[in-house]
Design brief:
By secondary structure, the protein is mainly beta. Helix content is 15%, strand content 49%. It has 3 helices and 15 strands. Strands 1, 2, 3, 4, 5, 6, 7, 8, 9, 12, 13, 14 and 15 form a 13-stranded mixed β-sheet that branches. Strands 10-11 form a two-stranded antiparallel sheet. The chain is elongated, with a radius of gyration of 23 Å.
């Protein structure tokens, strides 16, 4: 009996130090697309958007997170129309492709995370060179993607819990920084049936502005 009480006493501190020993899912580790930086320039003749994105390659919204790498995506619109456009920034770039559906030019390449208040860009539009500074749209006080995801979880934890088994999560998560006269986040939770529960998050205070379920 004394030996039993001694072993019980010795086990109590260990139980106190590891209460429950239950781990929960790290939802940010299931993010398959994270657009974390947006740079924007516009004048009377053209507009340039540059995104820094951690994104799975090849990209597939199927409820499974693949291998993720950083990509720089560039969108260019020329209001007078153009046949050929080349772009250069931070020592990288090339000829842009015309996207007939969205009616803009597009280029992407593997790149480093973009940072700083602005990025100098050189454009060659049908043989004519133009240089612009494209500015970071993130305002002082804008929350980051991790915080936006946390706000969505606090708003609707059941959507996450229904797909969670211990530390495993049966889905993938998309986080995109958006800009439209202010910063917002799109957060999408995609399950294995490719149903996406989407939320629009205020980039200043994390409020959920809207939500919508996209069925496959």
């Amino acid at each position: 009996m004394k030996k039993f009480l001694l072993s019980l006493a010795l086990s109590i501190p260990a139980l106190m130090f590891f209460p429950g020993c239950k781990k929960s899912a790290d939802y940010f580790s299931f993010v398959s697309e994270y657009r974390k930086s947006v740079y924007f320039y516009e004048d009377d003749t053209l507009s340039v958007k540059i995104y820094s994105v951690d994104k799975e390659t090849p990209y597939s919204l199927d409820g499974f997170k693949g291998d993720v790498s950083n990509v720089t995506e560039i969108f260019f619109e020329y209001k007078s129309g153009a046949s050929e456009v080349e772009i250069e920034l931070l020592g990288q770039g090339g000829e842009m492709s015309w996207m007939a559906v969205t009616r803009n030019f597009y280029l992407s390449f593997a790149g480093e995370n973009l940072s700083g208040a602005s990025i100098p860009v050189t454009l060659n539009i049908d043989g004519k060179e133009k240089k612009v500074d494209v500015f970071n749209v993130a305002e002082e006080g804008t929350i980051d993607g991790k915080t936006a995801l946390k706000c969505v979880y606090e708003y609707d934890g059941d959507t996450f819990k229904d797909l969670t088994d211990g530390t495993d999560f049966a889905g993938e998560i998309i986080i995109r920084l958006l800009y439209d006269d202010g910063c917002y986040y799109y957060v999408g939770v995609c399950n294995r049936e490719t149903q996406v529960h989407a939320y629009l998050v205020n980039g200043a205070d994390g409020r959920i502005i809207a939500e919508h379920v996209n069925n496959p």
